[in-house]
Design a protein that fits this description.
5-stranded parallel beta sheet, 48% helix, alpha/beta, binds nicotinamide-adenine-dinucleotide
Length: 547
């Protein structure tokens, strides 16, 4: 997933390149050339319609009428918008209807080719298959049609004037545009659940579009925006404004900041504010914040009036790639973390990576541990990409490639939770690094952050896997090197290995489980096993201990 280097990597996301414009501007030739250079699939909507209907375009116009043709175009636009990695050349009138432009335009980079009328005439001189140009005075007809369509063409975000340019030169410009694409693009990932599906939308500036997207999702009326003071001061105004613009009546509901407040008492506070804000069964709860807010608001949404709709608006890296996805919501109990919870699938998850600009470095590091974990569990290309990117990973989050990194980490989790929505098996792999990590977290009295503990835990798991002969030794070097580049610890201080073992075993015994380990077999592949000798674990821990 060389996301930062090469434009063609966009084929792995939901991006298409859509080339539109008036007839004779070179859409098909340019599209074909762009597709050839990027190695993407080329689709010409006119040709596809001809193939499907079994007639040429002039035959369709004369025998079935223009209305029939436009209907075919509309269907095709909806269909193609769901696909990825396509270069699509549209018919000249295909994107004039707003509905078609919206569908294809949001699926990737939309470019409109323009051209001087004289050159269009020259290019079309020998062409006879354009039914709309059958009139005797071609020039006049072209000018009239162009005038009719000018406004719609102008509304496309990128324009390239092809007058005097070769096909290769225009293709080059389209590909250059692709390099900048992404600033306004929205990545969409669909998650299938036992009861349906929901969408994760990822794009810079999405917090200002919450209202519009929630409305598109069918949500209406009163909504409760759950947040804490820190996040409220930063982002609530933007979200509230977008909600109001879209016709919602939002109420801000606040809980104190911190894991210490992820409790039933805080849920009680939220119920009070929901009632005061007159949130009814048809309303929705919007969780704006990190994993703590997502879990709390999610639990409140699962139980208030036997369940109201939930929208996750995660603002920490950890919540974006992990906590907001998968439908688990919970609060802590004095006897343990996340002991009281539910499965509550959101209607929508909206991720605005720009929110990460205000997150402090320690929180970012915790998130990076989860991103690296995703690479280890299910995406060698994500792992390799992180290895290759520049040496300022904490700052580069605002680059487009970072959006792709977050999306890829999400895809790893989505694949797992789709397979195991109620955590009865496969989800265990998400606990890579947790058997060791959780013990270290507990021993430190939670002064070691979760992400830091997972980081050390992943290294311990890798060493164990190598010692068992499950995993190639090279991984043992690559993982710590990557974690260190992201400022994460790979060794621990203090505790005797026996103490750590005891903490690992006690925790599991308390829950009546066997001590299970998630171990890497390779980068991007893990196994779950309970067959790890204690002596081996102690040896691994000894070697990871700082003295
Ligand atoms: N439900 C799940 O599947 C799941 C998975 C993983 C973790 N979790 C839970 O997530 C929680 C940890 O989440 P977290 O790491 O996001 O911690 P957090 O929610 O406590 O957020 C960390 C801190 O960052 C602040 N913050 C949030 N967004 C910010 C922003 N954009 N700018 C500045 N500050 C911001 C928060 O107010 C908080 O002080 C834990 O309770 C954990 O149990 C749940």
């Amino acid at each position: 997933m060389e996301v930062s280097k090469c434009a063609s990597d966009k084929s792995q996301t939901c991006a298409n390149i859509v080339i539109t414009g008036f007839m004779g501007t070179g859409k098909s030739k340019v599209g074909l050339e762009v597709a050839r250079r990027l190695g993407w699939e080329f689709v010409d909507t006119d040709t596809l319609i001809e193939q499907r209907v079994g007639m040429t375009i002039p035959e369709i116009f004369s025998q079935q009428g223009e209305g029939f043709f436009r209907q075919q175009e509309r269907q095709l636009c909806q269909e193609l918008a769901k696909r990825q990695g396509l270069v699509i050349a549209t018919g000249g009138g295909a994107l004039i209807p707003e509905e078609n432009r919206q569908a294809l335009g949001t699926s990737g980079l939309l470019v409109c080719l323009t051209c001087d009328v004289r050159e269009i005439l020259r290019r079309l001189v020998q062409v006879e298959d354009r039914p709309l140009l059958d009139a005797a005075d071609r020039r006049e007809r072209i000018e009239t049609l162009l005038a009719e369509r000018r406004e719609a063409y102008r509304r496309t975000p990128h324009q390239i004037d092809t007058t005097g340019l070769t096909v290769e030169e225009v293709a080059e410009r389209v590909i250059r545009l692709l390099g900048d694409w992404g600033e306004a693009a929205v990545e969409r990932i669909v998650v299938r659940t036992p009861t349906g599906s929901y969408g994760i939308h990822l794009g810079k500036g999405l917090l200002a579009r919450v209202g519009e997207l929630a409305r598109q999702q069918g949500l209406r009326g009163r909504v409760a925006l759950v947040t804490n003071r820190t996040v409220r001061d930063l982002y609530a105004a933007t979200v509230i404004e977008s909600l109001r613009k879209a016709g919602f009546e939002p109420a801000i509901c606040q809980v104190p900041d911190g894991e210490a407040y992820k409790t039933l008492d805080s849920v009680g506070l939220l119920y009070d504010q929901f009632i005061e804000g007159r949130l009814d069964r048809y309303g929705a709860v919007l969780a704006l914040g990190g994993g703590v807010i997502g879990d709390l608001a999610g639990f409140a949404a699962a139980t208030y009036m036997r369940g109201v709709s939930l929208v996750q608006l995660p603002t920490t890296l950890l919540a974006m790639v992990d906590a907001s996805i998968g439908g688990k919501v919970a609060v802590d109990h004095p006897k343990g973390k996340n002991l009281i919870g539910a499965f509550k699938q959101p209607e929508l998850v909206l991720i605005d990576p720009l929110a990460l600009a205000t997150l402090d470095e320690a929180e970012m590091r915790s998130g990076w541990a989860e991103v690296i974990k995703a690479g280890m569990i299910g995406s060698p290309s994500l792992f390799e990409h992180l290895e290759e990117r520049g040496d300022k990973p904490l700052l580069s989050i605002l680059r487009h490639s970072s959006v792709q990194v977050i999306a890829e980490a999400i895809r790893v989790k989505v694949a797992i939770v789709e397979e195991d929505p109620y955590e009865s098996g496969r989800r265990a792999v998400l606990n890579l690094g947790h058997t060791f990590g959780h013990a270290l977290e507990v021993l430190s009295g939670f002064t070691l952050r979760h992400g830091e503990a997972v980081s050390i835990g992943m290294v311990a798991a890798t060493r164990t896997a190598v010692a068992l002969g499950l995993c190639d030794e090279a991984v043992e070097g690559r993982l710590p090197a990557l974690l260190q580049r992201f400022g994460l610890p790979t060794r621990y201080e203090g505790y005797e290995p026996r103490e750590v073992w005891k903490a690992m075993a006690t925790d599991k015994k308390r829950r009546g489980e066997k001590l299970r380990f998630v171990l890497p077999r390779a980068i991007g592949q893990v196994v779950v096993t309970d067959k790890v000798p204690k002596a081996m674990v102690l040896e691994v821990l000894e070697k990871l201990r700082e003295r």
